[in-house]
Amino acid sequence: MSSAIPFGLPVTDELAADVVERLAAVEERLLETARDQDRLLTEASRHLVAAGGKRFRPMLVLLASYFGDPTAPGVVSAAVVVELTHLGSLYHDDVMDEAPMRRGQVSANLRWTNTIAILTGDYLFSRASDLLADLGPEAVRVQARAFSRLVRGQIQETVGPAPDTDPLKHYLQVMADKTGSLIAVSGQFGAMLAGASAHVVDTITSACEKIGVAFQLSDDILDIASESDQSGKTPGTDLREGIRTLPVLHVLASTDPADERLQKLLTSDLTDDEAHAEALGLLRSHPAMDRARADLRQWAADARAELLTLPDVPARAAFEGLCDYVVSRTG
Q1: Which of 165, 239, 256, 258 pairs with 152 at a CA distance of 20 to 30 A?
Q2: Domains, the chain, ranges and CATH?
Q3: What separation in angstroms does the CA of 228 have from each of 222, 223, 233, 276?
Q4: Angle, vertex CA 304, rays to CA 150 and CA 195, nearest 5
Q5: d(Cα 311, Cα 95) in Å, to the nearest integer?
Q6: pLDDT tens digits for 186-198?
Q7: Burial 205-222 (b: 16+ CB within 10 A, else e)
Q8: pLDDT digit string (tens) for 90-112?
Q9: What does the alpha-carbon distance between residue 108 and residue 323 come to, in Å, rounded to a whole number?
Q10: Are 132 and 85 in contact (CB under 8 A)?
């Protein structure tokens, strides 16, 4: 067994070596694609590419391809497409969140300006579309629908639930659209372009969406629980921005009088450092965190149940390992 691929997944040495080699090809294509005749655009486009990351979505594309022919044309290109789309969305996210850091680096919006960051994100989307055109009309359609979901999820998160909508149901739909959609496409592209059966394509797509939601839930838990930048951003960012994630929703739904102080804080302006620190401290020790972790475990278990219907190939063990990892990373 080997832990050479990201997350230390339980894969054979042969599969690990193959995936690492193909991830290197993806990395090379990313740098090549994020290049323009304009010097500033090249520098800004490569800003997040050079910052690294686990390349989670490209890895899913590659792993899913092993349910068919992993050497099929288009698999590596599809991995580049999903990562470019993800990176482009991060530029926009940082503008909306006014985030000062991303992946341990000064964010593009702070290093340059909001305008440059937004346009850079747009440029990466355009480069992804250029690559996508060579993968065929079905791939273009799949990506377009996923991108629509991503935007819809971001808008729904920004606007919040309607008065007659269950906040928890709204939150989970946002997670599925904003995060799960592109992760689902990663698995779908890998299996589809590798010529896997319709059952495999549909199953891996559904399971990857659940894994994507689970990853976002774990990020939201880490945003509260971590003392450092373990989640990839400054701890408590969502809280400060007034984004009601799963632990917060569990607290707000509580009828326990002991929660009144925390509920008052969570419905107030938390841009104030003192109020933010108090809310973060109270939330970290609240039973809502355990409830959120239980919800996370259920999403991972549901994904695993679907994965177990797939052919028992080495790549399936890797996907199962993701279900374990996403739970273990939150403690």
Answers
A1: 239
A2: 6-328 (1.10.600.10)
A3: 9, 9, 9, 16
A4: 70
A5: 43
A6: 999 999 999 999 9
A7: bbbbbbbbbbbbbbbbbb
A8: 877 777 766 666 766 767 777 77
A9: 32
A10: no
pLDDT for 86-95, tens place per residue? 988 887 777 7
Residue-level length of the chain = 331
Q: Per the structure block, which two tokens stand in for 49?
A: 């590419």
State how far the alpha carbon of 148 is from the alpha carbons of 50, 108, 177, 226, 323, in Å.
27, 24, 9, 32, 26
Q: What number of CA atoms fall less than 13 Å from residue 114's CA on the CB side?
A: 7
As given in the structure block, the two tokens for residue 251 are 């607290």
Q: What pTM, to 2 d.p., does this model score? A: 0.88
**Lookup: tokens for 90:** 């991060």
Question: Which residues does 101 contact at the CB level (< 8 Å), separation at least 6?
Answer: 107, 229, 233, 234
Q: Between vectors from CA 200 to CA 27 and to CA 87, what angle results, nearest 5°?
A: 30
CB of 161 closer than 8 Å to CB of 170: yes
